[in-house]
Design brief:
508 residues; eight-stranded mixed sheet; six-stranded antiparallel sheet; globular
Length: 508
């Protein structure tokens, strides 16, 4: 049976990658294009997507036509030296306006985000109902972040780094630009538009037939337990249900984001996500109402492209309306996040659930079916290790890379001009296991530590990082040694079994 199915997949792939992902019958039945006109660059030609120079020409044209509401700033450069643009859409309004930051093409082969945001900007200039949102909101839009990858239709950046796995390391200029923009803009709302590949071999392993993901888009919000509860509450109370309402009106299917992973030979569905190495989590830990939106698209080429681009635009508009309608509540949630002083979650695990129902499309039968799968549900994670929040962390002056990375995040810190006596807790590494699987070119190191309380002299040149700052939750997530994707786990700070770390917790 499997041999026949693989033969079918091979035959479909021989026709075209897009046809393998989504047959013509499936397209007509489930994903027809809307009857609308979109004037962005890709729709002015029959093939391909919007290139960098086409995008820049289009942006300059809009800004020339609407200088009263649009401006462009170069916020960074890619590895190949291309300028990374950010468009600001604003006009005079109330003094305490919300700041909304939208990103597209963080992955270079996910072009729908770029096109959808260009369409959103165009509609903002032509639709009075949308332009009224500027009374309460300033928009900051980076339509193409990974320009080098986008130009060659490649997911990674020019040096083959996955930009959305580099948000704790910040080793590449594109990641540094994203965090520098976040430090400058200080967004209340952050949305990163991605695309996902609808057909995976792992789906067929479970279904026993050729199936594809049926969702026009999927929500990926931060499930990291150090994200302030006020942010999650406003997401789940307003942003997600109101986007679902829009989807129902527009005939768009949606779900919480899921992907698959092999676990000792078994296929596990991961529902949601909590890793701080990705944008939705790092921005939420910074204190923004944050989501990553996965729109159906990778491998489809121009199939259903108008539908996909319109989906991005409709989501951008809906999130803007939600922010506008609940502006006071959003602002209070962000303010509350900046003073969050809960204990720090250091280690956690997702809830396991058997027979989790996932809807799919049977490609050959052209009908929807439901699979019961084994799942890990990140939004229902369990904290397995927590620690009281220290008043500050100290880092040795030798931890140059860690200090520089924190500076790139915009973290407030103080370099000691002279030695300081302090009550601290020191970490002794009791276990250190290196992973066999690299992540972003790094073999992560899983450690366990013992804490010892002592009075010690902190040498001059050391760096003190206070925790009563808006980025305190991010700092704790990066510096606690057992934290997944933190500085010890990602080898920014060296650790060795039996030795003390050069991180100290200042006790209250």
């Amino acid at each position: 049976m499997k041999r026949i199915l693989y033969l079918i997949i091979g035959l479909l792939a021989a026709v075209s990658e897009a046809e393998a992902q989504q047959t013509g019958k499936v397209t007509r039945t489930f994903f027809p294009d809307p009857d609308i006109e979109i004037g962005t660059p890709a729709f002015q030609k029959k093939h391909g997507f919007t290139g960098y120079s086409e995008m820049m020409d289009y942006l300059h044209g809009m800004i020339t036509e609407h200088p009263d509401m649009m401006s462009l700033e170069i916020v960074g450069r890619t590895q190949k030296g291309r300028d990374i643009p950010m468009v600001r859409i604003s006009r005079p309004g109330q003094a305490d306006k919300l700041r909304v930051l939208y990103l597209g093409s963080v992955h270079g082969n996910e072009h729908g985000g770029t096109e959808g945001l260009l369409y959103f900007m165009d509609r903002m200039t032509r639709n009075d109902t949308l332009s009224r949102l500027l009374d309460k909101i300033d928009f900051y839009i980076m339509p193409m972040v990974n320009i080098d990858g986008s130009e060659v239709n490649k997911r990674a950046t020019d040096n083959n780094t996955d930009l959305n796995r580099n948000q704790t390391l910040l080793t590449i200029p594109e990641a540094q630009t994203m965090q520098r923009v976040a430090s400058t803009v200080r967004p209340h709302v952050f949305i990163d538009f991605h695309e996902y590949k609808p057909l995976r071999a792992s789906y067929e392993d479970i279904a026993g037939k050729l199936v594809t993901n049926p969702n026009d888009f999927m929500f990926l919000w931060s499930s990291h337990p150090n994200v302030a509860p006020s942010l999650t509450k406003v997401l789940q109370k307003h942003f997600i249900p109101e986007a679902r309402g829009m989807a129902e009106r527009e005939g768009l299917t949606n779900h919480t984001y899921f992907t698959t992973k092999s676990d000792k030979g078994d296929v596990i569905f991961n529902i949601g996500g909590a890793s701080p190495r990705s944008s939705s989590n790092s921005m939420a830990l910074r204190g923004a109402v944050s989501m990553l939106m996965e729109v159906r698209g990778i491998g489809l080429g121009r199939t259903s492209y108008k539908r996909r681009v319109n989906t991005v635009c409709m989501l951008a508009e809906q999130f803007a309306r939600t922010a506008f309608d609940h502006a006071g509540e959003v602002a209070r949630a962000v303010d509350e996040a900046g003073t969050d002083n809960r204990d720090l979650a250091v280690a956690f695990r997702s809830k396991r659930q058997e027979n989790y129902p996932v809807e799919m499309i049977d490609i050959l039968g052209c009908r929807k079916i439901t699979l019961d799968v084994d799942a890990r549900i990140a939004p229902e994670c369990e904290v397995t290790l927590s620690r009281p929040r220290p008043s500050a962390y100290y880092l040795s002056k030798d931890e140059v890379r860690a200090v520089e990375t924190l500076r790139r995040f915009g973290v407030e810190m103080e370099t000691l001009a002279e030695p300081r006596v302090a009550e601290v807790e020191t970490y002794t590494v009791t276990r250190a296991n290196e992973s066999y699987e690299p992540v972003g070119g790094v073999l992560p190191l899983a450690v366990a530590t013992d804490l010892t309380r002592r009075r010690m002299t902190i040498p001059a040149g050391s760096v003190r990082i206070p925790m009563d700052q808006p980025l305190g939750n991010l700092v704790g997530t990066l510096l606690e040694p057992e934290s997944p994707n933190g500085f010890v786990n990602y080898r920014v700070i060296d650790a060795e079994k039996g030795k003390d770390l050069t991180i100290y917790r200042e006790t209250k």
